[in-house]
# Entry
Amino acid sequence: MNSSNDAHISDQELMEQFYNTHDNRLLGTLLQRYTMLLLGVCMKYLKNEELAKDCVQHIFLKAISELQKYQVAHIKSWLYKIACNHCLTYLRDKHESTRELSETIAAEDELFAKADSLKKDAMLTYMEEALDQLNAEQKTCVTLFYLQKKSYSEISAITGYSMMQVKSSIQNGKRKLKQLIEMKLGQHNA
# Structure
């Protein structure tokens, strides 16, 4: 597979294909997507470009080895943690002062928490936008079921829809929401 042809394929799909075929080219495509992220993480910790580049290569080797052994659900956050741990181990081995090391860890954890918070905000925005794109019946049923925690029979009583209509609207609405959110995430990550 050519990496330019893989640009439209999600991380999850690439991982699934890799686990099915064990084709290291797929893994290479995936790792290539995160080279700059990993380099940035390593630069923050190590403050040396050449050393950071070396560490990224070590991280790639470790990732290739580990991913052969077990499956990872969220490759980006997994690689991020591998990079942090690799750099921290390197710094410990080089006998960096514990105060400086703990300050670096605290700053990195704060940055990760902020990024996580922004990601949650974006997801809520995507969810609201996607909910507005459902048809009226699906939007009503999904809102009552998931947001207001109503049962199928309560929704049927409120809306006048049959139990089958309620069930179908919730299932189809949920599937449509998932598709819309994945499409938004794909556009955001592109």
In short: The chain has a mean pLDDT of 81. DSSP finds nine helices and no strands in the chain.
